[in-house]
Amino acid sequence: MRNNGGVSPATRTRTKEPDAACAEAVDLARAAAAEMAGEDQVGDHLGLEADGDRVVTHLFASRQPGYAGWRWAVTVARASRSKLVTVSEVVLLPGPDALLAPEWVPWRDRLRPG
């Protein structure tokens, strides 16, 4: 049995540096967002976030009416020792300045006596 310094593979510290191949997959990520929303609904590339080993989320501005401040988040990944990057997920998420609906209030709490 190999001594790995007391750290099991399951608890190994993950790097927050983005995987180079996944970070360079901006065009792949944009194409996936455009397929979901339509080419004219995907704006500028806003950056990326390293989510783990060989997993990166690319962020694009949304041009959808009614979604000011929202971003298309496209997560891409690649298998260990593979050069092929694939799309894992495409979602529309609120950004820090996004317009959000107010917190839901149950009907019974919205009615006033009388």
Spatial order of the strands forming the largest sheet: 1-2-3-4
* Secondary-structure-derived class: alpha+beta
* Strand runs, count: 4
Give the SSE string: HHEEEEH
Ends distance: 76 Å
Shape: elongated
> Which residue ranges are poorly predicted, with pLDDT under 50 across at least 5 consecutive positions?
6-13
What fraction strand? Answer: 25-35%
Helical run tally: 3
Helix proportion range: 10-25%
Summarize the biggest pleated sheet.
4 strands, antiparallel
Topology readout:
Elements: H1 20-23, H2 26-37, E1 42-52, E2 55-62, E3 70-77, E4 86-94, H3 107-110
Antiparallel strand pairs: 1-2, 2-3, 3-4
Short précis:
The chain has helices at residues 20-23, 26-37, 107-110; strands spanning 42-52, 55-62, 70-77, 86-94.
Question: Which key features would you list for this structure?
Answer:
about 110 residues; alpha+beta; 4-stranded antiparallel sheet; 3 helices; 4 strands; about 20% helix; elongated
Fold and architecture overview:
- This protein has 114 residues and is α+β, with helices and mostly antiparallel strands.
- Helix content is 18%, strand content 32%.
- It contains three helices and four strands.
- The chain has helices at residues 20-23, 26-37, 107-110; strands at residues 42-52, 55-62, 70-77, 86-94.
- A four-stranded antiparallel sheet has the order 1-2-3-4, covered by helices on one side.
- A hairpin with a 7-residue loop joins strand 2 (55-62) and strand 3 (70-77).
- The termini are far apart.
